[in-house]
Amino acid sequence: QAAIFAFPYDVEAVTRIANTPAFIKGVINLRGLIVPIVDLRIKFSLSEPTYDEFTVAIILNIGKRVIGVVVDSVSDVVSLAEDSIHPAPEFGTFDTQYLMGLATLEERLLILLDIERLMTSGEMALVDQSTN
After folding, report:
1. In this structure, are strands 65-71 and 33-39 parallel, antiparallel, or unpaired?
2. Has residue 3 got a pLDDT over 70?
3. Considering only Cβ atoms within 10 Å of each terminal Cβ, which end of the chain, N or C, has fewer?
4. What's this model's pTM, rounded to 2 decimal places?
5. Going edge to edge, which strands form the sheet with 85-86?
6. CB 84 within 8 A of CB 104
7. CA 82 to CA 103: how far, in whole Å?
């Protein structure tokens, strides 16, 4: 419900903003709306991001704010049965507050991210807490 649409990510179309964290790639002008673009691979130190023909930005409507999230690719959109979702395991020192849980779909293990909780967190500073 939060996702509006996805489009190919164009590094050249993003305007960098001075003094922002590295995971905030900058902003784009989307039909007259200024949209911050976030790369969660950088935020979560997952890998050195590469941007190719499969990289897309997913535009999300969170609270009263529109935010773009860069992802490696979008392969499909799936609906999950509630009984296929399992609670996120506790990892001790690893912070799991943004994980909704884990799910299995055929042979795949999916990590479910609570994107609204993440984007409205104080550390992201992208959505005013009062807009929720």
Report:
1. parallel
2. no
3. N
4. 0.76
5. 85-86, 99-105, 108-113
6. yes
7. 9
